[in-house]
Design a protein that fits this description.
40% of the residues lie in helices and 15% in strands. The termini are far apart. The relative contact order is 0.09. The protein has three domains: 147 residues, no CATH class; 196 residues, P-loop containing nucleotide triphosphate hydrolases (Rossmann fold), CATH 3.40.50; 29 residues. The strands form three sheets. A six-stranded parallel β-sheet has the order 9-8-10-11-7-12, sandwiched between helices. Strands 1-2-4-3 form a four-stranded antiparallel β-sheet. A two-stranded antiparallel sheet has the order 5-6. The protein is α/β, with parallel strands linked by helices and 440 residues long. Strand 10, helix 14 and strand 11 form a beta-alpha-beta unit.
Length: 440
């Protein structure tokens, strides 16, 4: 019995006979926000067999807290909405004192594997429980979530996305669940399933695709603009996605060759004179580009493609004086270019070519006092048509989860240092002055 709002069984509502390809969402305007509750109420009954939502009133919770059955209310601690939930002791599962709570029951269609949906050993279910302040129980193909209306709506929306990913043949992972939860909370007006199912390149038995909304926007910008700058911290897939786009363009014969370049700058240390030929000397600087290329192209064919000039990997200094036509050109580690080098590189653009520039302006290895060309190019070219700046953040890091936290920690430290820099300089100046009281 519903004490508040009930979502009727989808079969009784006649939704079972709806075509599978019918759009489940009305298109949202670009400026519109993302309403998690509306998303769940409008979309979920068309995916799941049935969804029932019950609003739990405070008096219901107090009645349920009468554990001894004597008809008298229990102690205030037991009668509180927090104590009514098995996870009330957890800060994540708690709801505001006296705030409304609701329960939602989701019935997964029989043709969807619950093991795949919840993970081996309930691995994905544990991730979902960590991500949301809701009490989640599974019995057969029925999932019940209890918590605040906003949290239960988000849980319902998340299972909607997971079922959609299953339907499209995408393997579900803990990382995917965490990213879907983050996108649902961010309310960006786009379905997470639409982001995670976009394939850029299928190579060597796997599909390379964006893993975050900003990565998808970056990949889309490469398709729409001649020059794209990708600026963001390490591990956000800047070079990797650009490489995938380049290989795809070469396979589609949209370009005749791929040119990969980066400045030959040491990362904060002097290596001295390196032995070997010129290419053996510069090879260590270009190794990251080779690594990405090996993930997307048959390793046995790479030497042949390089010998034929179809793929060229060279230091930035070799670009001067050239006109690059019908090419997909990637400049990596662009934060280590000088303003003059950046101008020189961008003016190599020829007919039928495309340029992607990637870099992290927080990791500049140039000599002290040298301005990064990637820093100032944003102010110079930001308003020119057909040039796009894609900005990635720590939320787009696709390496180990600690990498994103490390990036955030360094950003907080840098912000603190900038804020306190004048005070630090004044203290240093005072410390360097002689103490005249002691006759210094």
């Amino acid at each position: 019995m519903c004490t508040g709002i009930c979502w009727a069984d989808a079969r009784s509502a006649g939704r079972r006979d709806e075509p599978r390809d019918k759009p489940r969402y009305k298109p949202l305007p670009a400026e519109a926000g993302y309403d998690g509750a509306k998303h769940a109420r409008g979309a979920v009954p068309r995916v799941f067999e049935s969804v029932e939502l019950t609003d739990i009133r405070n008096d219901d919770l107090r009645a349920r807290s009468d554990a001894d059955g004597d008809g008298h209310p229990a102690s205030p601690q037991a009668a509180s909405p927090q104590a009514a939930s098995p996870q009330a002791a957890s800060p994540q599962a708690a709801t505001p004192q006296g705030g409304p709570r609701s329960a939602v029951k989701i019935v997964i269609p029989a043709d969807h594997s619950m093991v795949s949906l919840l993970g081996s050993g309930d691995e994905l279910l544990h991730v979902i429980e960590r991500e949301f302040a809701a009490d989640i129980h599974v019995r057969g193909n029925e999932i019940t979530a209890t918590g605040s209306p906003a949290e239960t709506a988000l849980v319902t929306a998340l299972f909607d996305e997971l079922v959609e990913l299953q339907r499209k043949g995408t393997d579900l992972t803990a990382d995917a669940v965490e990213r879907i939860a983050a996108m649902l909370r961010a309310e960006r007006g786009i379905r997470p399933a639409d982001v995670l199912t976009v394939g850029i390149l299928s190579a060597r038995g796997r599909t390379i695709r964006p893993k975050t909304l900003n990565q998808k926007r970056y990949a889309d910008a490469i398709d729409k603009h001649t020059i794209v700058f990708a600026i963001g911290p390490a591990g956000t897939g800047k070079t990797y996605l650009a490489m995938a786009k380049a290989v795809k363009a070469l396979q589609a014969k949209a370009v005749n060759r791929i040119i990969l370049t980066r400045p030959a700058v040491e990362a904060g240390e002097r290596l001295g004179f390196l032995p070997g030929t010129l290419y053996e000397k510069i090879d260590p600087y270009l190794r990251p580009l080779y690594d990405a290329l090996h993930d997307m192209v048959d390793p046995d064919s790479i030497p042949r493609l390089i010998s034929a000039g179809t793929i060229e990997i060279a230091p930035l200094a070799f670009m001067r004086g050239r006109s690059l036509n019908d090419s997909f050109i990637i400049l990596d580690e662009a934060q280590n270019t000088s303003p003059e080098q950046m101008k020189m590189f961008l003016t190599r653009l020829g007919f039928g070519s495309q340029i992607v520039v990637t870099g992290d302006i927080t990791q500049v290895d140039l000599p002290a006092g040298q301005v990064s060309g990637l820093r100032i190019v944003q102010d110079i070219l930001d308003d020119i048509e057909d040039i796009h700046f894609a900005r990635l953040t720590s939320h787009d890091v696709v390496r180990h989860r600690l990498v994103g936290k490390i990036v955030d920690a360094y950003e907080r430290y840098d912000a603190y240092e900038r804020q306190n820099q004048p005070d630090s300089a004044n203290r240093a100046n005072r410390a360097s002055r002689p103490d005249r009281r002691k006759g210094g």
